[in-house]
Amino acid sequence: MALGLDESQQNALNLLAKAAAYSADCPNGFLVGGTEADWNLLASYGGEIPFPINTAIERWLKSSLINQQPIIINDALGQSIPDYFHQLRSLGHKFVVGVAIWGEEGKIIGVLFVTSPSLQQRLSTAQVYALQTHAALIGQTLQLQSGLLLPKQKTFIERLRLLESVVVNAKDAILITEAEPIDEPGPRIVYCNPAFLKTTGYTLSEVIGQTPRILQCEETSRATLDLIRKALSSWQPIEVEILNTRRDGSKFWVELSIVPVANEKGWFTHWVSVQRDITERKNAEHLTIQALADREEKVALQSRLEERERIEAELSYAAYHDDLTTLYNRAYLMALLLDRFNDSDQEPSPAATVLFLDIDRFKFVNDSLGHRAGDILLKEVARRLENCIREEDVLARVGGDEFAILLVGEHQQALANALAQRIVDQFSLPIVIDGQDIFTSCSIGIVTADVTHASPDDLLRDADIAMYVAKKQGRGRWALFNVSMREAAIDALVMQNALKQALANNEFSVVYQPIFSIFTGEISGAEALVRWRHPVLGQVSPDRFISVAEDIGVIHELGHWVMQEGCSELKRWKTEFPMMKLHLNVNVSGVELNRPGYVNQVKAILAETGIDAQDLQVEITESVFLHQPEAIAQVLESIREIGVRIALDDFGTGYSALGYIDRYPINAIKIDQSFVSRMMTFHRSDAIVRSILSLGRALDIDITAEGVETQPQLQRLSEMECPFAQGYLLSHPVNAKKMLALLQSQTANLMSDS
Fold it and tell me: Per-residue confidence at 190, pLDDT binned at 50, 70, 90?
């Protein structure tokens, strides 16, 4: 066949190559063909095409396309394809599809190719049909050029006849519609194959002229329809799965592929849709999904049951275990004891012995090293206790730094004593925290259940009482409970309750012990001392109630009241005796200094009473530095900044008194009475007093000797040039009225001497 294409025919072929590529969703298309053994590139769209096509390639293509099915050339074919197609791949054509162009007498007169740089796996049925349609149109164009066909045969419907056998015999439903309109009422149906009629139940007359919307139902996915409409509006091929309805109303699923088909001028004139019935597959999928869902539900149910069991186990564990140490907790211990108390076989009392342990000075570790160090300490304590007990013993953490050990069975007393001593010995070894050796100890109370214990609470109460007795004995000890301890604890409780009401009932009073200048014999100031007279308990010694006041928090209110009363009296004295240089000493505990806002409290008292800050002197002992020394130092520095003086009481009785003078803002020292009382008979005591006085003069620190009770003591202090003294020899503590009388008497003596 001689080829002499005019410009319009060439343009038609180029447009058809473009339309074919578009329908296959490929960026490239080209056409080869011509007379036998002389094939050339007839049209192209997109990328570069290698040439020439030799006779061998032509024969290979004809043999590959003889079955009328497209050939797909990709990497899967490997080296079995001609070199020509390897050249195509090197130019970026990774995916190649070829469709035969048929001429008269069943001869292949060319091949329509579409290519893509991406490795597509397949073409939809509709896309294949569209390629064959475009190939048929190209065949018509080529034969028209040679005069073999009449122009009237160029109509679209006539072109379909060329594919009649393919369409009629297809198992898939094929529908051809006009290209427009996309919107309502939609493109009209111009052709359908027998498979479509068989699938849908419609007759040909019922379909032709209608739109594909006759297949839609309420259950048809709106989202899928929107996708189709969007694709059609932009002339894009689309493949979806959609639920349709037959003429009788029954539902069926189809795999729907829609592609546009162009004419020889490149205009998209029709839509070709291929519908494959996938109802059985979808039903199978539904059954599979349902089975999977049922299985997943069963698995989920099993998982929920297991999770519930796990949570219940965790809750049960959490209910009876301590998170930090993993030991049993107080709840478990109490439940275990309750079972033993309720056991009728344990009458009249259960065979149970409890060791109650408290870590000594644990708060000091927490405050100085932090809570993390405190947690490490608690865990290490737990491990050491576990190493001390037997397998049948029960160890529990019952409080912050409190532990309990339950021994069951008869005759456990001796075992409990031995266990307590073993634990005390274990705590003699240091615990290393962040490279630091921490030495701690524990106090242990031991109690064995008897007829006086009606409940687990009674048993633990007495064990706790015994523990506190051990702690008061010096820490790092253990004590056996006896009834007298309970009575003492009750007395202490009575004192606590009475102490809480004492301030409200005006049971406290302040007395003043004068402080004298040894050089002049005149009163230079006084120490304010609190006294408590209870209507039932009588006169209660400060040694008994001060520590209790600290334990229950009453010390803050009591200390504030004492300082305010004393400063008010000092103001009265200074107003009545303006020529006298008087100061007031007030004792302050470490508990008071640690309370936030203490400095502001002192400022408020000074402002309210109107006395000068330098006339107030707070007395502290070395014990205030045992807990949070740095924080205490800051408070003392703040007190001194407002002008209040600071005196170190009972000097010389601690282990680092000189260090305190060096580190902290100390203005005065009070020599403990133990040195004063022994200095007349013990040379060392005399030397210590002399050294303290020498230190005071060197550091410009006021020195007051306490507990002066004899004239020789006063004489000796005078010889040593001690500046101040107080004690029973000079004056007992007196109330405000008598203190005023002493000051009046001194003033009168001074006036008579003058």
Answer: confident
> What's residue 146's pLDDT?
55
CA of 710: how far to CAs of 272, 714, 715, 727, in Å? 129, 7, 9, 9
Of 12-21, 363-372, 560-569, which gets the smallest average pLDDT? 363-372
Statement: residue 216 has pLDDT above 80: yes
Q: Decide: helix, strand or coil at residue 716.
A: helix
Of 680, 681, 676, nearest to 722 (Cα)? 676
Tokens representing 33? 């063909």
Q: Which long-range contacts (CB under 8 A, 24 or more apart) does 652-657 make?
A: 652/688, 652/692, 653/622, 654/621, 654/622, 654/623, 656/622, 657/622
CA distance 670 to 349: 56
Size of the chain in residues: 754
Phi and psi torsions of 265, nearest 5°? -95, 0
Q: What is the CB neighbour count within 10 angstroms for residue 119?
A: 10
Cα–Cα dist 641/665, whole Å: 10
Classify burial at 452, counting beta carbons within 10 Å of its beta carbon; exposed 0-12, middle 13-18, buried 19 or more.
exposed
Q: In what order do the strands lie in the sheet with 251-262?
A: 189-192, 173-178, 268-277, 251-262, 238-245
3-state secondary structure labels for all residues of 255-312: EEEEEEEECCCCCEEEEEEEEEECHHHHHHHHHHHHHHHHHHHHHHHHHHHHHHHHHH
551: Cβ–Cβ under 8 A, 6 or more apart, which residues? 496
Task: Confirm if 143 and 104 have CB atoms less than 8 A apart.
Answer: yes
Cα distances from 215 to residues 199, 203, 223, 252, 585, in angstroms, run 11, 13, 16, 10, 105
Mean pLDDT of 362-377: 82
474: number of Cβ within 10 Å: 10
Structure tokens that stand for 549 in this block: 């006041």
The answer to whether 254 touches 126, Cβ cutoff 8 Å, is no
- The per-residue DSSP string of 529-563 comes to EEEEEETTTEEEPHHHHHHHHHHHTTHHHHHHHHH
What's the DSSP call for residue 671? E
744: number of Cβ within 10 Å: 12
Name the H helices within 72-172.
Answer: 83-90, 125-145, 156-161, 164-169
Around 430, how many Cα atoms within 13 Å sit in the side-chain half-sphere? 8
Nearby residues of 253 by Cβ (< 8 Å), 6 or more positions away: 241, 242, 243, 244, 277, 278, 279, 281, 282
- As given in the structure block, the two tokens for residue 377 are 């300490």
Neighbouring-strand partners of residue 616: 584
Q: How far apart are CA 714 and CA 730, in angstroms?
A: 9
Q: Helix (H, G, I), strand (E, B), or coil: what is residue 436? A: strand
Q: Is 420 helix (H, G, I), strand (E, B) or coil?
A: helix
Looking at the whole model, is its pTM more than 0.70? no
Q: Which residues, including other chains, have CB under 8 Å from residue 421's CB and lie 6 or more apart?
A: 478
Domains and CATH numbers, the chain: 7-159 (3.30.450.40), 171-277 (3.30.450.20), 328-481 (3.30.70.270), 504-753 (3.20.20.450)
> What percent of the chain is modeled with pLDDT above 90?
27
Q: Please, what is the average pLDDT of the chain?
A: 84
Q: Is 229:206 a contact under the CB 8 Å cutoff? A: no
Query: What is the tens place of the pLDDT at every residue in 547-581?
Result: 888 888 888 999 999 999 999 999 999 999 988 88
Please, what is the Cα angle at 212 between 207 and 213, to 5 degrees? 115
Distance (Å, whole) CA 28 – CA 18: 7
